[in-house]
Amino acid sequence: MIIKKEYLLNKNYEIIICGSGPAGITLALELEKQNISCLILEAGDEFYSDKAQSRYEGEVVGNFPNDISITRLSQFGGTTGHWGGTCRPLDSYDFKDWPINEEDIEPYLNKSCEILEIPKSFGEKNISDRLKIIEFQESDVRFHEKYFEYIKKSKLIDICLNCSIFNIKAKNNSINEILLDPENKLILKTNFLVLACGGIENSRLLLWFREKNKFISSSLPIGNYWMEHPFKKIGSGIGNFNLIRNNLKNDFEKFENFRNWGNFTVSISPTKKTIDEKNILNSAIFLTLHDRDNDTLKNNIKDLLCVAPNLSNKIVKLFNKNLLCGISISSSWEQDANINNKITLSNSKDSTGIPKTKLEYYLSEKTLKTAKEMINEVGLYFVDNDLGRIGGDQTIYDLKNFISDAGYHHIGGTRMGENKYSSVVDKNLKVHGVENLFVCGSSTFPSGGHANPTLSIIQLSLRLANHLAKKINIL
Ligand SMILES: Cc1cc2nc3c(=O)[nH]c(=O)nc-3n(C[C@H](O)[C@H](O)[C@H](O)COP(=O)(O)OP(=O)(O)OC[C@H]3O[C@@H](n4cnc5c(N)ncnc54)[C@H](O)[C@@H]3O)c2cc1C
Q1: What is the separation of C-alpha 92 from the centre of its chain, rounded to a whole number of angstroms?
Q2: What pLDDT is recorded for position 186?
Q3: Cα–Cα distance between 474 and 1 in angstroms, integer?
Q4: How far apart, in whole angstroms, are the C-alpha atoms of residue 378 and residue 128?
Q5: Which of the four, 144, 175, 195, 357, has the lowest number of CB atoms within 10 Å?
Q6: Does ligand 1 lie within 6 Å of residue 43's CB atom?
Q7: List of E strands, 19-143
Q8: CATH number corresponding to 5-83+142-227+411-474
Q9: Is the CB of 40 under 6 A from ligand 1?
């Protein structure tokens, strides 16, 4: 049920969850199934407001593409209020730097697909020993629409809207008090605290708690190893559409085609062999064929775009039309974890008195090398199979000026691992050195693969619910 802030005074909850995005809601609902009650503190209201969004404002240094206040939503249901819904699990080899394996979260995939109302179908088919085509699913679920009324009526889940956490207090490295205001008037008691505030806020809050308290170790790399999935159109091509369609045909239902550019899109990924041999990161290429139903002058100009972009751009200007080359290639791919890509606290504060975010974000040579190698691999495949010719866009050769078109998948900052010098939480998502503080969300991913993160976030939330339920039942 919804509970007002003033009624929280001195209340005691078994578990308090900060944040009502997919991470927090999934956790609360799964705990409820196991008969465990909890309180969700949600900083936003039922719907987003300028006031709530303003807490997300911050400073950005480097080549992050967006204003960080628009790349997430502060409201019930979190960022699913405007997410794209594209889903795919991580590849088994994405877990290389994780303290857990694919098998540790695979048991939660069925239930995660049910929550997102998507079929558990993520096919893949090798088209050579170097490349494979892969299947995505698209979810229409918005957590507000699906769960707000349900949680309002729940007897085991309390939710307090417009309520964010200000500080924590601990005894013997175990949190026992949650302070909701700087004046320490509103104090809550709990046995377990879970931060599920999204891929930037989890780091910001932990950094702030550490600044206020000595019991969070100064050795933890909080905020470091922050990542994104760069997304960009990276190449173009010309080719025989019938041959391409026949060569890449498959039974998969869904491919990434959110730009609705063309009439045929196929998603291509490197095999592990290619990743290892070329020393690149994981990647998804979205190869789209644009309508080619006649032989008009327009189509000739479109083709000319691939081989003589300057000349054809001049002609395009005469037509005043936004023409595209016959084949366009976009990509969403992995960025490597770098300690210097980080969230720190800025000098200015938000309306609740907590320092705003400062994000320092740069792309590495290896990240752009991945895009270049993938264009080469797809290009060679086209040559070997006589399908056409592919070329890379100038942008992927210019690291200094490269700006991705996205900035929506916030990964790292409270990464999972065994070592307290190179990670923040352990394999059960517990903060190293604090007995009852947990973090849930993509901030805990040590690496991000290329797959959109929310499906894996939900798998991890379900796993955390099981872990907490076991602990509570033992106590
Ligand atoms: C435009 C866009 C498109 C996207 N498309 C996709 C996609 O196609 N596929 C995909 O997998 N992912 C996509 N994402 C990413 C996806 O939305 C996130 O991975 C997902 O929402 C993260 O869930 P979360 O619960 O960790 O965080 P969020 O959904 O961000 O929720 C965090 C919640 O915590 C609350 N909160 C924050 N601070 C506090 C505090 N101090 N106290 C209490 N509450 C707090 C916030 O108000 C919010 O409700 C997209 C994101 C954007 C912006």
Answers
A1: 17
A2: 85
A3: 27
A4: 11
A5: 144
A6: yes
A7: 38-41, 58-62, 86-87, 124-126, 131-134, 137-138
A8: 3.50.50.60
A9: no
Per-residue pLDDT, 305: 72
Q: Which residues pair with 343 in a beta bridge?
A: 359
197 in contact with ligand 1, CB cutoff 6 A: yes
Structure tokens at 80: 């699913």
- Cα(468) to centroid of ligand 1, in Å? 22
Kindly report the protein residue whose alpha carbon is nearest to atom 4 of ligand 1. Answer: 83
Q: Is the CB of 21 under 6 A from ligand 1?
A: yes
* CA 85 to mean position of chain CA atoms: 11
Q: What is residue 32's three-state secondary structure?
A: helix
Torsion angle of C-alpha atoms 232, 238, 241, 244, degrees rounded to 10: -70
Looking at residue 254, what is its pLDDT? 65
H runs (alpha helix) in 280-423: 297-307, 309-319, 365-384
Whole-number Cα distances in Å, 425 to 94, 104, 250, 392:
18, 16, 41, 39
Cβ burial of 246 (10 Å; 0-12, 13-18, 19+) is: exposed
Spell out, as residue ranges, where the chain has pLDDT lower than 50: 258-259
Q: Cα angle vertex 394, ends 388, 399, to 5°?
A: 130
Determine the residue of 454, 458, 461 to mutate for testing ligand 1's pocket, defined as the one with the most ligand atoms within 8 A of the Cβ atom.
454
Q: Which residues of 378-396 are buried (b: 16+ CB within 10 A; e: fewer)?
A: bbebbeeeebbebbbbebb
Nearest CA to ligand 1 atom 19: 454
Q: What is the pLDDT of residue 435?
A: 96
Instruction: Give the position, in ligand 1's atom list, of the atom nearest the Cα of 442.
Output: 26
The minimum-distance atom of ligand 1 relative to the CA of 70 is 53
What is the pLDDT at residue 397? 93
Question: DSSP secondary-structure letter at 291?
Answer: P
Q: Ligand 1: does its nearest atom lie under 6 Å from the Cβ of 165?
A: yes
From the number of C-beta atoms within 10 Å of its C-beta (0-12, 13-18, 19+), residue 314 rates as exposed
Give CA–CA dist 41/159, Å, rounded.
6
